[in-house]
Amino acid sequence: MDTFDLERRHGDHLHFANIKFGWITLAASAGYLAVAALVHTLYLRGKTRYIGTWLYGLVLAVLWLILVTAAPEGYSTHFSVALKRTARVAYAMIPLSVALAWRLPPLNYLGRLRVHKWAGWIMTASTTFHGVGFLFKWYVADELGAKLAQWRNLAGVAILLVQWALVVVSVFNLTGYTAWYWIHNAMVLVFTLITILHAQPGVVWLGIIACVFIVIQYATHWTGVSVAEVSVLAHPGSSLVVARIPTPKPVANAGVGQHIRLASRWYLPSHPYTVAHSDASAIELVVSRTKFDVTHAVTMRGAYRSEFPQLVGASAVTVCCGGSGLSMALSVLAYFPEARVIWCVKSVSDLHVLAKVTSPPPKDQLAVYITQKGTAAGGSPPAASATPGTPGTPDGGADDDESAALMMDDLDDGPIYIEKSALNYGRPQWSQLLTPETASVVVGCGPASLVDDVGDVSRHQGLQFVAEPYQM
């Protein structure tokens, strides 16, 4: 009887060589999250300790490199084994990437969100290597047309195009945040579901786990407390407003720099706002008029912890803030009552905020810098142009306490009394204000240019510097 050697449909046992690496990646992801949480909880309790996002991202990249290069059985003779390994590892990283983006109050999610971006780039690089590698392999073997005629492979090309469409939209800022939010979420679903149809061997169970994590993410993003109409306290000529949000129940205190997220509808993306003051009935914010248009019923989520370190026993805290950054300053004052506040505003009209907030800074701990030339209360021009950093009247001359108060007495809430020496015109000279003799810890909040300038001076002076820009 004649005998025949039958070639296996998928070549040999190497077809299944990478299945275990999907589960190993899931286990490694759980270990990564556990270790990161442990490090954050135990090591970062000190007041001067800080681990940059780049280090978390670097550890993640090294972990990925180990997973795609470990036990390279068949790599030398079967290039497709390596290509499939990278894709499977990337797909198994979906739960990790999604978990890094979870917003579970009162936990701090800001640092994890930046590591989430690292995970996204690593996954994109993996799937790109997989897709382009197979296209090249088929082209060299003169099989490109035949392979692309198979619907599974065509689905793989669709996944690659979807991923790079998201990269282009994100890198080149082609849409507003709301549009990007929906595009990003839709493409994550497309990648997760179509890969189940595309992958060989199958990834059904990995896909189910990924979908469970995505459902949890949507649940945390789309649930919140519905609140009544927001009360907005404004003043003519000012770019700042005080917003008071009634809450049906007290919001848990999440510490210094805590923030809430507001959305005009439960299904729309939310935006973060630092809490200036909160009590049993309301939350108070200081916000920019141009960036805050939620004046009807809203959905509120939080409060969430900030990345503000635990400054146990800190002394001589100075908060340098600009505009709506006063919210952070008021939050810091609640925990460090002796903190000094240096507040930069565009016009005298912005000082109405001090009369409207529940707990303004003590007048002997506050210095105000009015940076826009040619403005006074109500937007009218002062008698002369401002002299940078000069206390008193706009022309730099002396004035008494009564005159300093009268300059702001057209405010609805009555006159605001500010120490004559604390009222300045022009931009602050940070190198003179931030010295080891006057501060040991400096907090920067407000426009990026202000935070950068304050940070540069603080580091040059050997002072501890804390900043928390919301880049979400």
Automatic annotation (TrEMBL):
<keyword id="KW-1133">Transmembrane helix</keyword>
<protein>
    <recommendedName>
        <fullName>Ferric oxidoreductase domain-containing protein</fullName>
    </recommendedName>
</protein>
<dbReference type="GO" id="GO:0005886">
    <property type="term" value="C:plasma membrane"/>
</dbReference>
<feature type="domain" description="Ferric oxidoreductase">
    <location>
        <begin position="87"/>
        <end position="194"/>
    </location>
</feature>
<keyword id="KW-0274">FAD</keyword>
<feature type="compositionally biased region" description="Low complexity">
    <location>
        <begin position="376"/>
        <end position="393"/>
    </location>
</feature>
<keyword id="KW-0560">Oxidoreductase</keyword>
<feature type="transmembrane region" description="Helical">
    <location>
        <begin position="50"/>
        <end position="68"/>
    </location>
</feature>
<dbReference type="GO" id="GO:0000293">
    <property type="term" value="F:ferric-chelate reductase activity"/>
</dbReference>
<keyword id="KW-0812">Transmembrane</keyword>
<keyword id="KW-0285">Flavoprotein</keyword>
<feature type="transmembrane region" description="Helical">
    <location>
        <begin position="89"/>
        <end position="106"/>
    </location>
</feature>
<feature type="region of interest" description="Disordered">
    <location>
        <begin position="376"/>
        <end position="403"/>
    </location>
</feature>
<keyword id="KW-0472">Membrane</keyword>
<keyword id="KW-0249">Electron transport</keyword>
<keyword id="KW-0521">NADP</keyword>
<feature type="transmembrane region" description="Helical">
    <location>
        <begin position="21"/>
        <end position="44"/>
    </location>
</feature>
<feature type="transmembrane region" description="Helical">
    <location>
        <begin position="203"/>
        <end position="220"/>
    </location>
</feature>
<dbReference type="Pfam" id="PF01794">
    <property type="entry name" value="Ferric_reduct"/>
</dbReference>
<dbReference type="InterPro" id="IPR050369">
    <property type="entry name" value="RBOH/FRE"/>
</dbReference>
<dbReference type="GO" id="GO:0033215">
    <property type="term" value="P:reductive iron assimilation"/>
</dbReference>
<dbReference type="InterPro" id="IPR013130">
    <property type="entry name" value="Fe3_Rdtase_TM_dom"/>
</dbReference>
<dbReference type="InterPro" id="IPR039261">
    <property type="entry name" value="FNR_nucleotide-bd"/>
</dbReference>
<keyword id="KW-0813">Transport</keyword>
<feature type="transmembrane region" description="Helical">
    <location>
        <begin position="179"/>
        <end position="196"/>
    </location>
</feature>
<feature type="transmembrane region" description="Helical">
    <location>
        <begin position="118"/>
        <end position="141"/>
    </location>
</feature>
<keyword id="KW-0406">Ion transport</keyword>
<feature type="transmembrane region" description="Helical">
    <location>
        <begin position="153"/>
        <end position="173"/>
    </location>
</feature>
